[in-house]
Design a protein that fits this description.
- With 717 residues, this protein is mainly beta.
- The chain has three helices and 37 strands.
- The strands form five sheets. The protein has a 22-stranded antiparallel beta barrel. Strands 1, 2, 3, 4, 5, 6 and 7 form a seven-stranded mixed beta sheet that branches.
- The longest helix has 19 residues.
- The chain is globular and about 75 Å long.
- The N and C termini lie far apart (54 Å).
């Protein structure tokens, strides 16, 4: 029986009390706003003719608010933190194929490689950030994590977010929150298919129905299948996602939304190419598209399913509550054959390879009740948020020993057949708990000064057991996590020109899995940030920020066991970022972003101080422009083009090898008429040939996708 500490019991009682109060409370007159089909707004003062919204769907590239940053729907212009929102319009204008691809629009963000099963996190400002779905953790991002059909918007919070977010392994670098499509009071069906280079195909659907005439029961279901063949021999990724959702509401203050989800992903696991022979070709060259494993290796598969429930209730004009609960389970089977190191074991070009297999069964339960009060006090507007959270992950795995075989000459490789190892290196059975109580107060003075202060009493726990050796890992720690920030409107006029200065401080904490020590420490982080936010009547808006982010007790690869990690040292990331959107007319949308990041080792026993962190370019940026014809004979035509550039990146933490800088060019054309949309998009049109860091073991590389063309046809009725 797993022990229940007193802290957990108190939290569970508080959560139960708050959730029960929400259900039993008398229905109030103040309604809970349901998602609208049509975009809210219409005030052209915030940009000539560009309608905007404060929740849900967004027209254009600028969202007025974030549901993630404060959990209170605060305008981004009044939030003292760097927050970016990738809207559905931007996703569709660029014809993005994966979540990872869309994240290139945000400065300082590198998404997981789409072909990687082993990379579970996004890098934000050089440090790991966790991916959440609708505000709750998805531990290790299982299943078809990259599909976009069910995504309404993607919200990126930069820096530690420990005051409001825990769960999974908890965020210390930031949050990527995928906001799902929800049922709306309308009837429509959308069906489409995308097909393109190397046999890519992706059919999808989106069906929305009110199930009652008065809109008290709403239903929506999305589904997508995707077959992707990257520029790598033998690799074919097959992903499937189904997302049914139903909302019950009395249209007078209470709503309950139930979201089911099922996803599955299978592919031959790609483990990356060594640095020697790819970025270092002084001795020999490896074929870029080589799959570095035998064709007899079985496919890797990951399955993910569960249910989310959210209950909203407004007591009156001041008090309201919302509670979210999720249960999920994921199953992983990952057979591999891979190269052990980046340098030849037998010069000049032969490497030993290893057979291994990992199997995992992970379950997660998350509960997050919130109580909110919005009130005026003298000259101030105030929003008080009281939250509790509890997240428990149970992870049971089998990790085989490495069966070393070879060597294989990579100039003309012939890989030995895969034989599944039967001996065990590790059989971990772990339980991770993140829980806490939070208090957050937002105050606005004289409509120009916006203050935020909060604290969370965070509790983290690890109870780990290796069933093979009987070795235990135990950790229990309570830590207060503060957050404070201010934003001042230094210029504000009657036509909605606003220029604001902001600054904030925040902290984070997380449990680090798979450590080769019986006395693990939680990883901690702190961030100081400041900058400028603008929102001009000309349609220009955005954020300029400078930051310093530090993390301690950093986990790095165990030199004695590549499946494990050791905790050593400290890392620091400093830099500056710009994220801008310009919408001068309803026809034009322009996005630009740039980041300069100096992310280095500051203390370590294994790596030199000053070493650059892996997969973090010093400079990177994105530019995209789109023009839509709204009148005349070309009405319905939309044209867009953009580029992405990144500087060289460290492949390994010892900085022995770097990938070179690169630039890619994309363009698209689409036409919409009578509910039908046809589009054609080209990605990497200049056919740039480059390698990217691939975070497998101590670091590998993967080749870029070659020039690719995709066509989409869809109908909405």
């Amino acid at each position: 029986m797993y022990p229940v500490p007193r802290v957990e019991l108190c939290l569970a009682l508080f959560i139960t009390l708050l959730a029960t109060t929400s259900v039993l409370a008398q229905t109030a007159a103040t309604g809970v706003t349901l998602p609208e089909l049509t975009v809210e707004g219409g005030d052209t003062s915030s940009g000539p003719g560009v309608r905007q919204t404060t929740a849900g769907p967004v027209q254009g590239y600028r969202a007025l608010t974030s549901v993630s940053a404060t959990k209170t729907g605060t305008p981004i212009q009044e939030t003292p933190q760097s927050v970016q929102v990738i809207t559905r319009d931007l996703i569709e204008d660029q014809q993005s194929l994966t979540v990872s691809e869309t994240l290139r629009n945000v400065s300082g963000v590198t998404g997981p490689n789409p072909v990687a099963f082993n990379q579970f996190y996004t890098l934000v400002r050089g440090f790991p950030a966790e991916t959440y779905v609708d505000g709750l953790s998805t531990f290790f991002q299982p299943g078809a994590r990259d599909l976009l059909n069910n995504v309404e918007r993607i919200e990126v919070l930069k820096g530690p977010t420990g005051i409001l977010y825990a769960g999974g392994s908890a965020p210390i670098g930031g949050i990527i929150n995928l906001v799902s499509k929800l049922p709306v009071f309308a009837t429509f069906t959308e069906i489409g298919v995308t097909a393109g280079s190397r046999g890519f195909v992706s059919p999808y659907f989106d069906i929305n129905r009110p199930l009652t005439e008065d809109g008290t029961v709403l239903f929506r279901m999305t589904g997508q299948f995707q077959r992707d063949v990257p520029s790598i021999d033998l690799v074919e990724t097959r992903s499937l996602a189904l997302n049914p959702t139903v909302t019950f509401t009395n249209n007078a203050g209470t709503s309950l939304t139930l979201q089911g989800f099922y996803s599955r992903r299978t592919q031959p696991d790609y483990t990356g190419l060594p640095a020697v022979g790819t970025v270092d070709t002084s001795a020999f060259s490896i074929r870029r598209s080589l799959f570095p494993s035998s064709t007899t290796v079985p496919d890797t598969s990951s399955e993910f399913y569960g249910v989310t429930a959210r209950l909203d209730h407004a007591f009156n004009d001041v008090w309201s509550t919302f509670t979210t609960v999720r249960f999920s389970r994921s199953i992983l089977s990952q057979p591999d054959q891979f190269v052990i190191g980046n340098r030849p074991d037998v010069p000049p070009s032969s490497f030993f390879v290893s057979n291994a297999i990992v199997r995992g069964n992970i379950s997660e339960i998350s509960v997050n009740p919130n109580l909110k009060a919005a009130f005026d006090l003298g000259p101030t507007r105030n929003v008080l948020l009281m939250s509790a959270d509890f997240d428990r992950v149970k992870d049971r795995e089998f990790v085989s020993n490495f069966d070393l075989i070879g060597p294989v000459d990579f100039r003309a490789p012939v890989f030995p057949d895969f034989v599944e190892p039967t001996s065990r290196a590790l059989t971990p059975s772990n339980a991770y708990i993140n829980a806490g109580l939070s208090l957050q107060l937002q105050t606005t003075l004289w409509e120009r000064i916006h203050l935020l202060a909060g604290v969370r009493g965070a509790y983290v726990e690890l109870d780990g057991l290796d069933r093979l050796t009987g070795t235990r890992q135990e950790l229990q720690q309570i830590k207060p996590l503060p957050k404070a920030g201010a934003i001042v409107d230094v210029y504000k006029d009657a036509v909605s020109n606003v220029v604001s200065l902001f600054a904030d401080y925040s902290e984070g904490i997380r449990v680090v899995p798979y450590l080769s020590t019986s006395t693990p420490k939680p990883e901690t982080s702190q961030q100081v940030e400041g900058g400028v936010k603008i929102a001009l009547a000309s349609g220009l808006s955005g954020t300029l920020a400078a930051f310093e982010l530090t993390r301690q007790n950093v986990a790095t690869g165990d030199p004695n066991n590549p499946f494990l990690q050791v905790q050593v040292g400290e890392q620091r990331s400093r830099g500056a970022e710009v994220d801008l959107v310009w919408q001068p007319t309803p026809n034009w949308q322009v996005l630009g972003s740039y980041a300069h990041i100096d992310a280095t080792v500051t203390k370590d026993n294994n790596f030199a101080v000053g070493s650059r962190l892996m997969a973090v370019p010093a400079d990177s940026g994105r530019l995209w422009a789109n023009y839509k014809f709204l009148e005349g004979s070309l009405r319905g035509v939309s044209l867009g083009a953009g580029l992405y550039a990144a500087g060289r990146q460290a492949i390994t933490l010892d900085n022995s090898y770097f990938t070179p800088a690169f630039v890619t060019l994309d363009a698209k054309a689409s036409y919409t008429v009578d509910g039908w949309t046809y589009s054609l998009v080209g990605k990497n049109l200049a056919d740039a040939l480059y390698f990217e860091p691939y975070l497998f073991l101590d670091g590998r590389v993967r080749p870029s996708n070659r020039r690719s063309i995709y066509a989409t046809a869809s109908v909405r009725f």
